[in-house]
Automatic annotation (TrEMBL):
Keywords: Signal. It comes from Acinetobacter bereziniae NIPH 3. It comes from the Bacteria. InterPro entries: HphA_C (IPR054536), HphA_N (IPR054535), OMP/PagP_B-barrel (IPR011250), Slam_hemophilin_C (IPR054843). Residues 1-22 form the signal peptide. Residues 19-123 form the HphA N-terminal heme-binding domain. Residues 144-252 form the HphA C-terminal domain. Pfam families: HphA_C, HphA_N. This is Transferrin-binding protein B C-lobe/N-lobe beta barrel domain-containing protein. SUPFAM superfamilies: OMPA-like (SSF56925).
Amino acid sequence: MKLQSISLAVLLSIGLVGAAQAAIVGESSDVSKIEVAATGSLGPNHPNSGVGFGIQDFYNGAVVAFSGFNGYADGNGVVRLNPYLPGLPPTHAAIGYANYKQVPTQDVWFGEWNAEAKDASGNRLGTVDPTTHTVYYNGKDADTSVPSTGTANYSVQGVNNYNGSNLLSGTFTANFATKQLTGSLSDSSRTFNLGTATINNDATISGSNASWTGGPSGGTVSGQFYNSQTSLAGIATFAGNRASDVAFGGKK
């Protein structure tokens, strides 16, 4: 995994984005599949700038703004992209299957992606390839420090193999005195447990004991606080079982 932090002030100096000066920080579980970064306007088809992502198989990983696809959000607010959306040209066949969501009122995003499965002859199958499952998050106004006292509860949601009806939700509790983040996320049949993650002094989150109830354990947690700890986002990954990886985000 690779943590990426990009200062918009630096990008401004080379003329890529506007005047805001804020840290955009995010992470992808597999940078050979998904990149997270800042982006500027890419013309009339993708005019939005700011927090973005790039699919490496699609236009050489060109980074586009998450917000540019809000029109594809479902009733849960999850943006759902796939190669068979009405009106997509054949050149978009490599877009794969992406599900991502915005933390309410924050320029902070979290999601997952899979390539499309193909048979031995390379024919497209119209389903996801679970061996390519990649989770990610990215956000603006990343914090660089946290308080030394106090607690905060976050209303958090998560995605793992999202199908339109299995959005994960729950509560994470941050104890800034003990530097611990705990909590769980559930849908109607599954529960993801964050374990006891560490809140680091630089406002990052790390852990090594995430698990699924009745499923894999020992998951690695990585995340970030944003906007004076108003929000957080992160991922949990399970070695050798990437289909179980989770992306999450939430707000106080």
